[in-house]
Structures are given as structure tokens and as C-alpha cells.
Amino acid sequence: MRFETKAIHAGLDIENPSKSIVPPISPSTIYEIDADGRKEEDLHYTRLGNPNRNQFEHLIAVLEEGSTAAAFSSGIAAASAILQALEPGDHIIVPEDVYAGNRKMINNIMAGWGLESSFINMTSIDTIESHLQKNTKLIWMETPSNPLMRITDIQAVTELAKSKNLLTVADNTWPTPVNQLPLTLGVDLVLHSTSKYFGGHSDILGGAVVAREESEFFDRIRLIQRMGGAVPSPYDCWLLARSTRTLAYRMKGHNEHAAKVADFLIHHKKVSDVFYPGNPALPGYEIVKKQMKGFGGMISFLIAGSDSESIKVVGRSKIIKRATSLGGVESTWEHRQSSEGEGSITPKNLIRISVGLEHPDDIIEDLDLALS
Ligand SMILES: *Cc1c(COP(=O)(O)O)cnc(C)c1O
């Protein structure tokens, strides 16, 4: 079955005895125990599992071509479950321009629990190898990176990791499985902030970890999900599954519109650099062509001018909303460094845009106005 078909059908029949085409929302926190006692797989208490969560977890696992998934109440909660599954004293390799929230969590929370980390430039496999330590356990990837669109060669990293017996994680929030399938390239775990393209309408907060295969490490993530308790509500899981049914077609629109917007920006005299996976001038473009099927809806660009000029440009849009985050049907943009804060390596004149599903000519006219 193809992606579009799986996105529409996967998970519908899980714990759905009425055979509703749209599974019902199950708000109950508790489930009746059989008279002859409770079996391991029975539903019991909603924090441990419920029909809507099981349906969504199955759906996202199928779409990422993994074996199993755990859904969380945010992307950050999913990321922290991966880190908490490590042991104190373990060391991890992280991109220096990793999602800013993950950097803050690693430095300000996990370090206190004994996690060691090296934040490095992940565009060269030699650089990654040179930062491995005796206690290194895991290599974290985010490709394309946020917001500089640095590209990591996923397959080269998984080959290195296998030779050293290390775990690999890929934050696939930006590309989504429509554009990139890290598990098929040998990555162990895929991370998602489902608040972005999976949710797709800027109205759900959520996260997920998808595993290529069952493992003791994933069992620990599952335990942290259930006992840490950062779980999404049945309603959020239901809404997320509903959004995911249209993910393939929304991504086709985001891919198409961002390509047009990137082309406009590349040729604009007020723009000095355009960071976009489909820009042939991007270092790593050859790797992009090897590992991505589409370029996604995100673009970062530098204004030929000061940071205050960049803030003014963002202030002039009429259709593109000034907001952080990404992946909604509406276009949003921001002066990125103002959002990232302490530790950010983002240039001061960088604007990041999440290209939405409005008519692309309207988005481009709005950009033209803002840049004039
Ligand atoms: C938003 C985001 C996260 C964090 O997810 P939340 O749902 O906001 O907690 C992690 N990684 C990337 C790449 C993101 O864009």
C-alpha cells in the first residue's frame, strides 16, 4: 500500500468494535476488568493506554515504516523520554543548531541528572567521529536543521553508529515521513513534534517517538511515557489521527508552495541568502537529493541589512502571520533569533517562514510588499 492510502486507513480498526469509519473519542479514564481477572493486553487506565492513543500510535508507526510508537503530550516530552531512557554518565552527540527547546532541556535539566553532551556541527561525518567518547551512547540528528538547513548524511551516520554500537535518533518533525524516512536508512528512533505538520492546523500540542524495532531501550521509553505521565488526551489523539489522514496532500501543497516562495526569495535583491533544502546552492544539496523525496515547507533567509531591518520586514506582512512554530495551513514567519534566545547561533538578520497552503501568489505578493 502507498503512503496516501495508509494515512487514510491505518489504525481505524484498532479497539473500534462498532466498526465506525471514524472511530469514536473514548474519554473514559478507566476500563471494566473481566470477571476472571485482568490480562496484560486489556485496557485498564487511560494513562497506560486508550483506544485513541493506540490508533494514533499505530498510524504514525506505519507512516514512518517503524514497528511501534509512543505518543506524548508535546514534542519536548517525547525528546525528554529518549534522554531519560539513557543512564547518568552517558554522553550524546547533538547538533549545535538543534531545536532550541531541546538544547535548553539538555543543558538546563538533563545535565543535572548526569547526561553529558557535545553540541557540534553535524555536516561532516569526520567531525562527528572525532567527538565520540568512550561513554557516547547516542547520536542525535535533525536534518534539515533548524533554522540553518544544515544537512546531515543520515545513512553515513547510521553506518558509523552501527560500527560503534551507538543508538541514533532523527528528529523528523520538519521533513515528515512524506519527504524523508530515517528508519529506512537505519536510524533507530524517529522523534516528532506532532504539534507541527501532523497536527497541521496550529491547534494541537503533541509528540511521538517511533522505533524501527522493539528493543529494551524502547521499552524504557514506553515505561517513561506511562510512568512519567506526559501523555496526550484521547481527544488530542483523535484530532491528530484526523489531521494525519490529510498529511500527504497537505505536504504536497507545502512542498509546492515553498518551492515557489524560495525561487522568489532567491531572486530578490533585499535577500542575501536563502536556506532551503531545494536550493542547489545549499551545502549538502547532494545529500538532500539522496535522502529526501521533497523539500518541505520551511525556508530561512537573510535580509541584506541589519537585524532591525529584518524585524521591520516581518512587521509589514498582511497575510503571513507573525508567529513562532510551523506546519499549519496558514503561513507564519518570525525574526528567529528573538524566539530562540540564549545559546542561539542563528544570524541576527535571519527570518524563518513556514509556507502555508494559501494560494502561493498571495503569499508571494505579501512577501513582495513586506520586502519593499
Ligand atoms: C517544535 C519542535 C520541537 C518541540 O516540540 P513541541 O511540540 O513544541 O514540544 C522539537 N523539534 C523540532 C524540530 C520542532 O520544530
Notes on the protein architecture:
- The protein has about 375 residues and is α/β, with parallel strands linked by helices.
- It has two domains: about 240 residues, Type I PLP-dependent aspartate aminotransferase-like (Major domain) (Aspartate Aminotransferase, domain 2, 3-Layer(aba) Sandwich); about 120 residues, Aspartate Aminotransferase, domain 1.
- The chain is built from 14 helices and twelve strands.
- Strand 4, helix 6 and strand 5 form a beta-alpha-beta unit.
- The radius of gyration is 21 Å and the shape is globular.
- The termini are far apart.
- The site of pyridoxal-5'-phosphate has 16 residues, from helix 3 and helix 4.
- Pyridoxal-5'-phosphate (PLP) binds next to helix 3 and helix 4.
Task: Set out the fold topology.
Elements: H1 3-9, H2 51-63, E1 68-72, H3 75-84, E2 91-95, H4 100-108, E3 116-120, H5 125-130, E4 136-141, H6 154-164, E5 167-171, H7 176-179, E6 189-193, E7 207-211, H8 216-228, H9 234-244, H10 247-266, E8 271-275, H11 285-291, E9 298-303, H12 307-315, E10 321-322, E11 332-335, H13 336-340, E12 350-354, H14 360-371
Parallel strand pairs: 2-3, 2-4, 4-5, 5-6, 10-11
Antiparallel strand pairs: 1-7, 6-7, 8-9, 9-12, 11-12
Helix pairs in contact: 1-2, 2-9, 3-4, 3-8
The protein binds pyridoxal-5'-phosphate (PLP).
